[in-house]
Amino acid sequence: MAPARTRPPKNRSWLLSLLLFGALVIMSLFSLTNPERIGDKEFTNAPEVSISEITRGYNAGAFSKIRVRDNKVFVTTITGAVLQSYKEGMDTVSQLGWNDPNNTTIVEVENREAQNMLLSVLPDILFLILVIGGLIWLFRGIARSQSNAMSFGKSRARIADATQVKTRFNNVAGMEEAKEDLVEVVDFLKNPKKYTSIGAKIPKGVLLVGAPGTGKTLLARAVAGEAGVPFFSIAGSEFVEMFVGVGASRVRDLFAKAKRNAPCIIFIDEIDAVGRQRGGAGFGGGHDEREQTLNQILTEMDGFEQDTNVIVMAATNRPDVLDRALLRPGRFDRRIFIDKPDLEAREKILEVHAQNKKMDTKVDYRAIAKKTVGLAGADLENIMNEAAIFAAKRKHKGVTQQDMDDAVEKVALGPEKRSRKLSEKEKQITAYHEMGHAIVGYLCPESDALHKISIVSRGGALGVTWFLPQEDQYTTSKAKFLDEICGLLGGRAAEAMVFGEITTGASNDLERASAIARGMAMRYGMGDDDLGMVTYGEKQGTMFLGVDPMTTRNYSEELARHIDEFVKETIEKQYARALGMLKKHKAKLEKLTTILLKTETMSEEEFIEIFAGKKRKAKS
Ligand code: ADP
Ligand code: MG
Ligand code: ZN
Hints:
Radius of gyration: 42 Å
Low-confidence stretches: 1-9, 280-286, 541-547, 616-620
Strand order of the largest sheet: 5-7-8-9-6-10
Bound molecules: adenosine-5'-diphosphate, magnesium ion, zinc ion
Structural class: alpha/beta
Mean pLDDT: 81
């Protein structure tokens, strides 16, 4: 099956260059034969005589040749000498009497006028050629774009043949539940009779919901691959064009094509681009073009006859903004939620992406999986690739554990910027700041385990203290929130304690601490008694997948003030707590910072060894 795209139009610019080239050739030819240049040399120093003298000499037969060009007269005498003269512009050879048939003198009149004429009109001709050529070129362009406009309504779906989709469920690591659900879909596509004969309806739409990079697209392809059916894929945004109605006609075209190729899968990626709630609710609502496109999708899905074996799969990471009509039975009534991979799944994903790489035999995928809590499949793929790049750069025979560790760091924290030069003072402040985070975080019982401290600049940060959750966590306690705030304030507390002044370096910490405190008060009912177990602020759509929807205020001024007070008090309390911890361990802070300034990075073990004065495994 040929791809649905139209053949790319031929590039016509060669026409223009050909014209230009031709013009250049003609011009240079003319300048080569320019009479100005021929035989003039011998006359440059020729003595000038009056025209009457020339006539006299002619009559006397003293010349062998007279050459006339414009009003210039060049004469060669019998003896071979040369003379030159000027005649009146109007005088012709006969008027001068040089046309005596009995005279043997050769009289040549160079018809330069004619050549001149040609020369003078040449630019005009060239100009004309260029204009005409340009116009032709332009019209062809217009014609071309018009033919494109005609195909506007055609869908731009990429079609993969049944044999082309190589992805299988095997290539998708983890996601066991999702795969289980989809095995059914595969079966529908393969043996529709089995279901229709018993009166079961074949599902029309499957919606894959999950954070970016969790493998939704991959999974959809795997379904097509497993079922061995053609796969039409298009991104929601590709429906939407400048012109109203184009999207709808593309949808029509896509579904028509799909029906002709049934059984098959239509995959609409990022369907939220067209499937947002209609009718102005929330943000970006009331977009005519999108509404029409969405309506068309719904109409097409409703229009499937019972035995049309086309399954529409769609992916989104914003199910909260989807139009409810899309989720109605008979449309995308199957929803498959794809979570960020857990420890087990992360290990498997790493292994899947190690398959096409040369690996050192001794790598521990589990260890890497443990370090990558919260990362999605795409991030893990990226880590494996970065690790391979490190290995290649370091001329390793295979990817080693060290390469993978460094890749995790690079992906999680951003690339190192060793070239960024900090002043000595800045470096010191950074070291104390990070050590403040480390000590406070270490001392807070609910804090994630310390992993590494570094004062090498990375991405936008001057330094970093890296805490790693030991396991996947799905809920958070109030104590943990408070410890997190305390740890975040540890950096600033250390700066204030040691230098008595504070820098802007802590602004991100403060922002995050405030956000946590505000969330406690408004979202989780963890505020004080006056706030109670009430959530404040009405969200447009639900909080989903870490994307904050817009909130509107649905509480009084007084409560707003109360929330602000709670946030302020919480921050102040935790700041005092952090400061207290650092004061108590001031000597260790000094010692650790001195070492950190020298070594630039410090591992958890090194930290604990110095801080606790003994070798001990990190708290688990
Ligand atoms: P999404 O569509 O959810 O944003 P993709 O399907 O495009 O994510 O995934 C991006 C890449 O991440 C895939 O090409 C794949 O290589 C990798 N990936 C994600 N999840 C998995 C997984 N479970 N197993 C293997 N690879 C995965
Ligand atoms: Mg995708
Ligand atoms: Zn900080």
